[in-house]
Design brief:
182 residues, five-stranded parallel sheet, 5 strands, alpha/beta, 9 helices
């Protein structure tokens, strides 16, 4: 297996769990949102406001093409990365895909207290936050499910606990990560 890929909706813990898992496995962590922002030199909110979602999604796709073919990484994806069929295919090939879920109310609470929300999480609709989450989750759940090798509910789990669940699954299934490529 090449990499561990974390997918799921906003504020389900993908970035935080990726860092914890990377630490435990002694592997580099790639957060696709962070890479896109660094390359473009703008926050996601600013990119979307000034250039539109299609601009962000095109850069996200480029980053996924690169990181998904690497080896020996823990990859945290943006919540909407699964909307692109090529991204789903690329992220699934030879990687362990873990879908992190959380209850809607937990997601709302996390988004409200998360300092990154305004800069990195622009609105996906004009609906109130709880309604937006419900709508987008309904659209994305089949895509997440299609890709997932493992599903973990993070509603009341700490990042380290979730990372240990992933490690336990890997051990039980005999899945090992390839050595990291530069």
């Amino acid at each position: 297996m090449n990499n561990v890929v974390l997918i799921g909706y906003r504020c389900t813990g993908k970035s935080t769990v990726a860092r914890a898992l990377g630490r435990m496995l002694h592997l580099p962590v790639m957060d696709t949102d962070d890479v896109v922002q660094a390359r473009v030199g703008q926050s996601i909110s600013r990119m979307v406001a000034e250039r539109g979602w299609s601009f962000f999604r095109a850069h996200e796709h480029e980053v996924i093409e690169e990181v998904a073919t690497a080896q020996g990484r823990v990859i945290a994806t943006g919540g909407g990365a699964v909307e692109n069929g090529d991204n789903r295919r690329r992220l699934s090939e030879g990687n362990l895909v873990v879908w992190l879920t959380a209850e809607r109310d937990a997601i709302v609470a996390r988004m409200i207290v998360d300092g990154k929300s305004e800069e990195e999480r622009p609105p996906l609709s004009h609906d109130p936050l709880a309604d937006e989450i419900e709508l987008i989750l309904e659209q994305r759940m089949p895509l997440y499910r299609e890709m997932a090798d493992l599903i973990i509910d993070t509603t009341s789990a700490a990042a380290d606990e979730t990372a240990v669940q992933i490690l336990d699954y890997m051990h039980k299934e005999g899945k090992e990560i390839c050595q990291a490529t530069p």
